[in-house]
Each structure stands twice: as structure tokens, then as C-alpha cells.
Design brief:
With 649 residues, the protein is an alpha+beta fold. Helix content is 33%, strand content 26%. The chain is built from 17 helices and 35 strands. It has a 9-stranded antiparallel β-sheet with strand order 1-9-10-11-12-19-16-15-14. Strands 2, 3, 4, 5, 6, 13, 17 and 18 form an 8-stranded antiparallel β-sheet that branches. A 3-stranded antiparallel β-sheet has the order 27-28-29. A hairpin with a 5-residue loop joins strand 23 and strand 24. Helix 10 runs antiparallel to helix 11 and helix 15 packs parallel to helix 17. It is elongated.
């Protein structure tokens, strides 16, 4: 039985099927995304969505969808599905779905009377080309397939509407057409693996509606252009492959190409393999050979903090050290350019955030744990030393080393931590001064660098770092630990944030902690009692003022509650690591139960991956971006930690 399989009862129930989304990527920035019933519910959805650097930094929807119609004895059965204004769905092709299976590639079985049609979809790796294979499994009489492409040619942040500017021109190419709606866009090639008839019948389909945009408080309607339709007969047992791309292809090789792409896929036959597939979707390989980690789909870009947090879990935890090195080569280049005051030559955003160099050191530390400290010293020793010295010498524009050894950061006017929501240009949570995770990471970085210095036989450097870390340790406890046994979230001047937040978990989870064993247990217990959910740690305790766990409403409403009680799986990863460090094997079964909460998500929200965040209260509904790198990464890292402890005596 397939691990990811939905039967007819679920697929034909739109209340159940529409919230379930599907993501395919090409590892070069392009993607294909919709719901499991192929009804687009977001402006970000589309069959072929590609970056167009010559226009802007956004992705652009070229081909929104492709409706397939089965024709027998003159009767037409349209398998497509669109939502129009007034809660009208047409043409309701979902009622013909027998089952959906995501074992190897997304596969939908349709049944129309005696006709059984199978549809399989893959996105060609490193090429902006979506491939769909239609196979007529059974039919008792002559059958024809008709295909209507719905074109958008717009940014994912905008909508298209009927207009007189859109070009209707098209040119015939090998078994298909080439067209482009607007100047500046690449041509769209739509081709089939066999001869067909294209009927030019231009029209606009008006009033298509995206309910997810309505939920998020945005405009939600657009018109899509259909240039006409392709038509061809199909015999029982025959397969036809459709390709949509920004480049032409020789159609005689489409069937072979489809098979090759299918064979490259890892089956999603269990929780771990689903996460591995999800991890690969965040890979970005640019033409200049730079490698990146995308922060999430469908609207995030490559961000520095997310890159360094996600990289170990997405690579080292699944035995892909080679890709770790490739991404680190690009990210390291960007961080060193920032350190040296040079313009960034890499496409990584938010490199200037003050905790980025701290997370970079943590990232390298995970490499050392996996590959050995000697290899780490050889490959990244100089980099770590440069980063720590950069911070220690106070050269970062927003990281000041105070006399007590702690790091001081200004976050009053601009959000500078991962809690980065803003309203009206101002941080919702103005974390400023001594920030708890910054200083936990700082102590950890000093001790890690000290260890590398001893390994490199640099006793003078090691002694200096040891003395510096000792001062930071004392100051950390004096500054953050309160009489109740948990850590302040930040301390700045006369302002002390007493809210119970999850950022204190890093002081327990990191390899080098400024806390003693009893203090670590106390902090961990607070996180367990007040912050732990089946979907990670809450961003704020229910006992704290301003607690609001439901991430719903308009953009402003969501920004105000973004870190006021919502649950985050990546924080849960550090929590589970802390549990294992404090309680060892006695917490193995507890952590296994925690992971079940994430496995449940494989069939919800976006199938086979983990969303950005969850409501902090039951039923802990997934929200935000449909697939989030640091969440997938930390669950993979937790699975590896769990396996490591299971192998211990």
C-alpha cells in the first residue's frame, strides 16, 4: 500500500482535498504548485512558475493550468477544476477522480464511464520544463483527448485581467505551439510527444477566484487567457507526454525523458523519504554553479540565517556532505564579502542580520560533529576564526561586545532576530539589548573556536578564547537567569522581557552551554510545561500577556500574532536535542511520540513536507508557507540524533 495515497471519497470532497497542496521543483528556482485536485487556490499556484531575472526578483506564472477533456461519441468530459466568483466550481472534473498516489511521482487516476485515464507529473531537474504523461489505461470505444492551456504571464504577487495588450500571436513548433503574451517574458513552448491538431480559439476565462488569498486578506480574482486547444486521438494502452517549457524540445525524446526523470525520484514510501524529497526541493543550483538553500515555498527567497540553520539537517543528516560543501562555498563567500565590506556577489538576502555569523559558526560545528574535527579544521578552521574575530573586534555594525563579554544588539527600530514581524515599519517584538539566543550562540562559538585552536596547536589563541568564554559564561547567568528558573528573552537598559519564550532553549541544546546541569534542567522544564506542542515550541507561553496562538486574518493581523503563541517545528528540533542531552535514552520514546506529530503532516497542508508554522492551540493547524526549510531540516536532524542514541548501549 502506498504511503501517500488518497481515495475517491477524499478527492471528491473539496472540503478535504482543496486544503491539500502539491509542490514540485526543478532545483533551479522554478516550481509547479497546486492542490491535489489541480484546482489553484493561491495566486502563487501554477503549472509552470519560473524566475525571470531580466524582469525582477519574483517568480512568474506562465502556465497556470492545463484542462484535459475526454471526448467519446461526441460527448465531452472535462477533467479540469476552477473556482469562480460566487463559490462556483467548474467544470468539476474532480468527480471523475478514482484515486491519487504520490509514491514515485504525483499520479491521478480518472474514470469516465468505461474510460480509465492515468495522469503523472514530473518537473525536469535543472530545466524550466514541466512534463505530464497521460496513459489511456482502458477504453471501450474511440477516445480523443483535448487540452486547454490557461495562461497568466504574471508575477506571483500580481493578477492578470482581460486586456488588449496581451499578444495572441503564436507559432507552430514541433508537435505544439510557441507563444508569449507580453514583451520581456520568455516564450512558452507547449508540445506533445505525438502529432496533434491545434485549434486557435482565443478567449479569456473571467472571474477565477483564489480562496487562500481571500483568507489572507488579499485581492483574489483574475482572468486567464486560453489561446485555444490541442486535440488528438489516443488508443487503449497508449501514453502521450505533454511538455511546457521556456525552451523548445525535440518531441521524439519526450517519452524517454519522462521515464528518466521518474527513475531519478526517491519513492515517498515512508516519513524519512518524504522529508528527504522535501529537503531536495530547497536546493537551488544557479548557472554560475553557485548553490543555495531556499528558505521556503512559495514566496521565500534564499536568506542567510535560514541557510545556516537549515544546511546541516538538509545535507549532513541525510549523508549528503558533498552538497553541504557546495552550499557552504557560496554562503561562506557571501559572509566573507560582508565581513570585508564588499558588495555581495551571491544571491543571499539579509546577510547583515547580527546573528548570521553566529549561526554560521554553529553550522560549521555540525559539520565537525559529522565529519570530524580534523577535517573541519582543514576545511573551515580559518573561516570560523575569521568570523569569531570579526565579532570580537566589534566590526559588525549591529553587534557590540560589551565589557562583560556579552553581545549587545539594537533592535528597536528594525527587527534583527528570527522574530522579525513588523507592522507599520516597526518591529512587533522590539528585541534589543542582550538577546538570549545571540549570547548562547556567542558562548558556544567561543568554546568551539577554542577547541579548534587547541587542535591547530595554537595555545595562545586557545587560552585567550577560554578566558573570554569564562567571562561570557558568568555574565550570561548573571544577566539572563531569573529566580524562577527560566531565562529572560532579552535585557536592554532598564527593560527586561519576562515573557516565557522559546529562545532560551538554545542555551540548553547547544554543545557548549553557559548553564550548569540544574539550570539547564530548569529551563528545559519551563519549555516543556509552557511551550511544548505536538508541532514544536510555541513562540510565547499561554501564561504571558498578549498570547494569541491563531495565525489568521489580514496581513497586519497575522504579523501581530506571528510570534505571539504560534508553534514552530524547527524550535522543536532544538528542544528534542536538549532533551536527549539532559535525559539521554530515558527520553527516546517521548521524542518518538513527538515526531509522530510531524509525520501526521505528510498528508496535510502540502503533501510530503512541513509548513512554516502552526497554530499554538489545538487542532494545531498548519499555516504560512507550504514548505519551510528550517522545519524540514530540524526534523531530519532530530531523526539522525534519535538514531544515534538508539545505537548507543
Amino acid at each position: 500500500m502506498s504511503y501517500l495515497k488518497f481515495e475517491k471519497a477524499l478527492m471528491t470532497n473539496l472540503q478535504e482535498s482543496l486544503p491539500r497542496e502539491l509542490l514540485r521543483t526543478n532545483r533551479s528556482g522554478a516550481y509547479s504548485c497546486s492542490t491535489v485536485v489541480e484546482c489553484n487556490t493561491r495566486k502563487y499556484h501554477g503549472l509552470l512558475v519560473v524566475p525571470i531575472p531580466q524582469l525582477d526578483e519574483d517568480n512568474h506564472v506562465l502556465l497556470s493550468s492545463l484542462d484535459c477533456t475526454v471526448v467519446q461519441h461526441g460527448a465531452e468530459f472535462n477533467l479540469g477544476l476552477h473556482k469562480y466568483q460566487g463559490n462556483n466550481f467548474s467544470p468539476k472534473g474532480h468527480k471523475y477522480i478514482q484515486e491519487f498516489d504520490f509514491a514515485q511521482v504525483p499520479t491521478t487516476i480518472y474514470r469516465v464511464g468505461g474510460v480509465i485515464l492515468k495522469k503523472e507529473v514530473v518537473f525536469q531537474h535543472y530545466v524550466d520544463r514541466i512534463l505530464i504523461r497521460y496513459t489511456l489505461v482502458d477504453a471501450h470505444s474511440a477516445t480523443t483527448l483535448r487540452f486547454r492551456p490557461f495562461l497568466a504571464f504574471r508575477s506571483v504577487r500580481q493578477f492578470t485581467h482581460e486586456n488588449g495588450t496581451a499578444s495572441r500571436d503564436y507559432h507552430m513548433v514541433d508537435n505544439g505551439i510557441q507563444t508569449c503574451m507580453y514583451a520581456g517574458y520568455p516564450d512558452l513552448f507547449m508540445q506533445f510527444s505525438r502529432k496533434n491538431k491545434f485549434v486557435f480559439q482565443p478567449d479569456w476565462y473571467r472571474g477565477i477566484e483564489y480562496p487562500k488569498e481571500q483568507e489572507r486578506g488579499y485581492a483574489s480574482n483574475e482572468d486567464l487567457y486560453v489561446p485555444g486547444y490541442f486535440e488528438m486521438p489516443i488508443r487503449k494502452g497508449e501514453s502521450i507526454v505533454f511538455a511546457a517549457s521556456t525552451s523548445e524540445i525535440k518531441t521524439s525524446g519526450l517519452k524517454r525523458l519522462f521515464e528518466e526523470e521518474v527513475n531519478e525520484r526517491t519513492p515517498r514510501d515512508n516519513f524519512f523519504h518524504c522529508l528527504v524529497n522535501a529537503a531536495h526541493q530547497f536546493h537551488i543550483h544557479e548557472k554560475n554553479d553557485d548553490r543555495y538553500i531556499l528558505a521556503g515555498y512559495p514566496w521565500f527567497k534564499c536568506r542567510a540565517r535560514d541557510t545556516f540553520i537549515a544546511l546541516p539537517g538538509l545535507t549532513l543528516s541525510i549523508e549528503e556532505t558533498h552538497y553541504f560543501d557546495l552550499v557552504m562555498k557560496t554562503a561562506q563567500k557571501g559572509l566573507l564579502e560582508f565581513i570585508e565590506g564588499k558588495p555581495l556577489s551571491v544571491h543571499i538576502y539579509e546577510m547583515e542580520q547580527p546573528d548570521v555569523p553566529l549561526w554560521a559558526v554553529w553550522c560549521v560545528q555540525q559539520y565537525a560533529r559529522k565529519e570530524g574535527f580534523d577535517k573541519c579544521l582543514e576545511n573551515y578552521g580559518d573561516f570560523v576564526k575569521t568570523v569569531v574575530k570579526f565579532i570580537e573586534q566589534g566590526k559588525h555594525p549591529n553587534l557590540q561586545v560589551m565589557e562583560n563579554g556579552l553581545l549587545y544588539t539594537n533592535g528597536k527600530d528594525k527587527a534583527v532576530t528570527w522574530m522579525n514581524a513588523t507592522v507599520g515599519g516597526r518591529p512587533v517584538i522590539p528585541r534589543t539589548g542582550y538577546i538570549v539566543e545571540f549570547n548562547a550562540l556567542w558562548y558556544n562559538a567561543l568554546k568551539f573556536c577554542e577547541h579548534l585552536a587547541r587542535l591547530a596547536d595554537c595555545p595562545k589563541d586557545a587560552k585567550h578564547l577560554e578566558k573570554f568564554a569564562a567571562k561570557v559564561k558568568t555574565s550570561f547567568v548573571d544577566t539572563f537567569l531569573n529566580d524562577y528558573g527560566y531565562l529572560y528573552d532579552y535585557v536592554g537598559g532598564n527593560v527586561i522581557d519576562w515573557n516565557v519564550r522559546p529562545n532560551m532553549i538554545f542555551a540548553v541544546a547547544l554543545d557548549y552551554s553557559p548553564l550548569d546541569q540544574d539550570q539547564k534542567k530548569s529551563v528545559l522544564d519551563f519549555c516543556t510545561r509552557e511551550l511544548l506542542t505536538p508541532k514544536g515550541l510555541r513562540s510565547l507561553s499561554p501564561k504571558s500577556g498578549g498570547y494569541n496562538p491563531m495565525y489568521v486574518g489580514t496581513q497586519n493581523q497575522r504579523d501581530l500574532v506571528y510570534h505571539q503563541g504560534t508553534a514552530w517545528p524547527w524550535l522543536g528540533g532544538f528542544y528534542m536535542e536538549a532533551c536527549l542531552k539532559i535525559y539521554k535514552r530515558t527520553r527516546l520514546s517521548f521524542i518518538e511520540r513527538q515526531l509522530v506529530g510531524y509525520e501526521d503532516e505528510m498528508i496535510n497542508h502540502c503533501v510530503g513536507t512541513i509548513p512554516e508554522l502552526f497554530d499554538g492551540n489545538p487542532p494545531f493547524r498548519g499555516r504560512g508557507a507550504i514548505s519551510f526549510a528550517i522545519n524540514v531540516a530540524e526534523i531530519l536532524r532530530t531523526l539522525e540524533l534519535l538514531e544515534r542514541y538508539n545505537f548507543k548501549e
